[in-house]
Write a structure and sequence with these properties.
alpha+beta; single chain
Amino acid sequence: MQTIMKQRYILLLTMMLLMTLSINAKRRARKPVKEEPLESQVVKDYTDSLNVMRRRLDSLQQVNDQLRQEQNDGRYFRLFVPTTFYHSGAQKTLTLQPQSDDELADAIDAALMNLYLRRPDLVVNNESNLQAAGSIRNDVNKELTQQVELIDFVAPLPEEPEAVPINLVIQKPNFWKFKGDGYLQFLQNFVSSNWHKGGESNYSAVAAANLELNYNDKDRITFDNKLEMKLGIQTSPSDTVHKYKTNNDLLRFTSKLGIQAHKKWYYTLQLLAYTQFARGLKANDEKVYSDFTSPFDLNIGIGMQYNVDALGGRLKGTLNFLPFAFNFRYVAREALLAANGIHSDHHTMEDFASEFTGELKWNIVDQLSWKTRLFAITTYHQAKIEWENQFELKVTKYISANLFVYPRFDDGNIWDDKMGYFQLQEWSSLGLTYSF
């Protein structure tokens, strides 16, 4: 009986399910479903996104308005300054029955207490330190105004002069420099015939001139030319053969071409030529010991030159090292050939040598100066060294006193029992001087 009842229920449920499916099929057949195109779906999505964005903007605007209204509320600053422990939050938390009518302050204190408990490492200060530091200055919020003084009239601008045409002349730089100096000095000595120590009267005079023409392009090239002339004459009653004779005689020309190698060092080609003006004589002796072009020496050397500039510009000059040099000597008088190292019928002699020439001038003080020249040459079988020293004392602009000391070594001369190969000349004088 129960089995028959179960079969009836199953059959009834099956018929109801079939009727439901039939009804849904008919509805579908009556109203077919139309799918919306993709373009409409995109437009709908875009419209929805605009609505969402509008609601967000409205929320932000509302928050912004609220902040503007509450911009003078000092309770918010605790949330934005460096994390500080304030006492109010701890007091409210530890109080059994907290009473407060300020919901905003309670919310801020609760947020800070949550931060204190979760991240105590972020707390960098406390309220006690702030109270010890003092309050904020009261004059910060005062309005600052500028005290501007207005004037009724503006000062007139200065009148600028009219532009006047000018004649501009551009000249090429002159790298040549000409200079010179000279002096004429006298020495007189009178001794009476009955002077208790003896001696004789004498007169002497010396004249000298130095001319220089130098070129310097301020870059690499230098070309220096110097002509030196000096002649001294003396008289003495004891000399019955000569009315006067020379005691100082020099005619010398020096030319140097330099190309800068490094700073004060220059590659140098030097030409040196020298002789004398008049015959060289001795007292009561008719023999002529030297003469014009007897001898005449010409030296050409190549090497390096160092320009000296020391003692604040007071010591200046040049040092020439010429390891390769050609020496030429000419003697016009036949009687002087052997005395000048020529032992043949020729009047000339050539040889190779090494040279050194140093010329310095030291302005010791404004009135006292020292000029020195050291010349050394060796042909590896003969050596000659000349050291000229001149001390000049300026008494006035046009009057000066000179002391000249000239030691010399020449192993080509005849050996002297007293001096050997050394020779010495010295004289002093007072007279006129001029430089330009």
